[in-house]
Amino acid sequence: MSLIIMTGVVSLLTAKSLPADEGRPSNPPSFRVDIRFYEAESIGGDPTVPLSAHRILFHRGVTYDLPQSPRDRVRFVTVVDPNRSRVMLLDRQSKVRATVPTDHLVELTAKIRSTTENAEKRDGLGLNANVAVDAPNRRYSIGFGRVTYRTDTRRPTDPAVARAFGRFSDWAGRLNIARPSDAPPPFARMTLSRSLVAAGLIPETMTVTIRNDPSDLQFNVTHELTERLDEDDLKQIREVEGMMAAYRDIPFESFPE
């Protein structure tokens, strides 16, 4: 399960758009976030064994999404590089890479926002969803259709960490649109992420509820923040950079599922 799918289950270019709005930080922070996705005990899940796990490394303005469990198909790596205006997908098994310009992702998202006029369709995509805030407890929630996200948050020591994580979440949502899946549309999640960035927060735990017949589906997502990178993290980044240079280029549309 890719992080794009995992977090999905977890207007024209305006001030609502984090990538354009925030610009490129002059001194981006280096840190990591370990994200684990569990099926809730209420539906028979094991709270000790994640369905999916990803280590997200942030370094010099570039973000590296590294799957950590066999179920995540660790062969796939995603690199978000706004510095070079691109997102790159890497396949360790077939040793290929595919690149999509960030401008394309922005234009694709803007097109959906601007051309979806029917209110029912907008509601179904989560375009009209609003964030509910419990400020004293730093709890945020948003819902649309059959899906609800509820998150408890934390405040990083460095405010730039929240901005960097928010930018990554926004690009992940846009990539989710370019590579359709069975996950819920990402617009509500992107709206929630922008609210957290504005408050200088990142998710700590999140509950995703999907109303279903005969019983609801519920998943728990944890975010473990480490506000630094260690030597093993830097080694993994160097390995990915080598893959980016060596792998054969293929069209974005041809990248393996």
Index terms:
alpha+beta, 257 residues, 12 strands
Silhouette: globular
Side by side, the strands of the main sheet go 7-8-9-10-11-1-2-3-4-5-6-12
Strand percentage: 25-35%
The sequence of SSEs as H and E is HHEEEEEEHHEEEHHEEHE
Largest sheet data: 12 strands, mixed
Total DSSP E strands: 12
Structural class: alpha+beta
User: How many helical elements?
Assistant: 7
Low-confidence stretches: 4-21
The first-to-last residue Cα distance is 10 Å
Q: Your description of this structure?
A:
- The protein has 257 residues and is α+β, with helices and mostly antiparallel strands.
- The protein contains seven helices and twelve strands.
- It has a twelve-stranded mixed β-sheet with strand order 7-8-9-10-11-1-2-3-4-5-6-12, with helices on both faces.
- Strand 10 (202-210) and strand 11 (217-226) form a beta hairpin.
- Helix 1 packs across helix 5 and helix 5 packs antiparallel against helix 6 (187-198).
- Residues 4-21 have low confidence and may be disordered.
Topology at a glance:
Blueprint (H helix, E strand, L loop, with lengths): L2 H7 L8 H5 L8 E9 L12 E8 L2 E6 L8 E6 L4 E6 L4 E6 H14 L3 H7 L6 E3 L4 E6 L2 E8 L4 H20 L8 H12 L3 E9 L6 E10 L4 H16 L1 E2 L8
